[in-house]
Design goal:
This protein is an alpha+beta fold and 489 residues long. It folds into three domains: 2-7 and 30-90, no CATH class; 95-100 and 111-121 and 350-483, no CATH class; 126-344, no CATH class. The strands form nine sheets. Strands 19, 20, 21, 22 and 23 form a five-stranded antiparallel β-sheet that branches. Strand 9 (191-192) and strand 10 (195-196) form a beta hairpin. The longest helix is centred in the N-terminal third of the chain and has 17 residues, at 23-39. Residues 1-24, 432-459 are annotated as: Disordered. InterPro entries: F-box-like_dom_sf (IPR036047), F-box_dom (IPR001810), Kelch-typ_b-propeller (IPR015915), Kelch_1 (IPR006652).
Length: 489
Amino acid sequence: MGSFLSSPLSKPHTVVHSSSMSQTEARKRPRMSLCYYEEYPRIIPSLPDEISFQILARLPRICYLNVKSVSRSWKSAITSREVFQLRKELGTSEEWLYILTKIQGNKLVWHALDPLSSKWQKLPLMPLVGHEEESKRGLFRFRMWNVMGSSIRMADVIRGWLGWKDALDHIPFCGCAVGVVDGCLYVLGGFSSASAVNSVWRYDPRVNIWEEVSSMATGRAFCKTGLLENKLYVVGGVSRDRGGLTPLRSAEVFDPNTGQWTQVPSMPFSKALDLPTAFLSDMLKPIATGMTTYKGRLYVPQSLYTWPFFIDIGGEIYDPETGSWIEMPAGMGDGWPARQAGTKLSAVVNGKLYALEPSSSLDSGKIKIYDDDEDVWKVVIPKVPLCDFADSESPYLLAGLLDKVHVITKYAENDITVLQADLETHKCCSSSSSSSSSSSSSPSTSQSQVNSTSEKPGCSVEEELDLWKVIAAKNFGEAELVSCQVLDL
């Protein structure tokens, strides 16, 4: 079939017998063909490239690193957008989980997980970046990692607001945000030498490299990101000037097709404006504590902070069609589960909004779902086996992968474990409307398990509920969890 498709058009009723072909012509044909293939090599010899692309698009992504080493033509094909576009059309694209960890020296390291094969791949390290600044005092030069670990907590930022602690002066680069758009990972902003930067770095898994792209209009750290209509939105965060740290209300959006950033109307923070006195307004700093894309709009929960307290003030919703912000429904904003100051974990799975709420015992949590009709968060999973280490910035993460809820956590044996819950198969406590009702109905045996595990130096990975399934686990040493994203390619 391939030879037929590859041969040039000829007269349909003309048959040339091999006996009538001269020896000279017979020798010329392979020589011309060899010259042609040297100049225009096919991906697979004797097959049209159209069929070769069909074959490559059906291969598991985990094989692509080895396939690229077969030949230059194979590498060129594997790294082309044509193959990945074809994978989407054929329905062979795969969702991978990308986990960001922090190792010693405050360096960030990415790891990719293929959930189908449970195999891991380490991404290339982010490159070193030379940065120069000139001032009246002369030339100040320094070298740094373009992205370093988020090694300070949101609490340190709040202390900086109050002048109690300035950790940003000696931590070179922290508070960066991560996002995804158009099949690529993005690392945005953060602090560098105590200043918020606007740099943006992109990782393209097709070619397995990092590259710097257009910078944001505003330098920001601890901002929140969201994907909507194939555009990457960035909101909030903090900046720093001579007066100290300043919370940001501004927002902007990145279009991968043009490679440009565009300003978006700033968040009103309407509830923060209702504070009764100027003293409270100065002490309580409004900040976005999360962002998720839900039903075609961006949902941004918000809080007011003053160390060591934080107050939830609901949130706001951005509608791209009207280009405006509206206040979040009261039950949604006030009841949005919070992990700690500065972070509210959420994920959308099959069009439903889920959030993770840790328990006070620090070794378990709950998964809640938002009910639009009743404007309330309901417990759907009353027990999530977690370990919360006090010195860890992100002891657990939440992700929507393969149309299921996933929790990523780290256990005492340094195993980073990915847990999967199939809520369509297991219906659990869907009638619960609050975390208190769920905890009161828990059996005494579950509490004894909690007490027994809390006495140990760490938690085990035993399946306390049939609902949870361990799909992958790997020992990354002392690495700490920072963030995670899902890419479909």
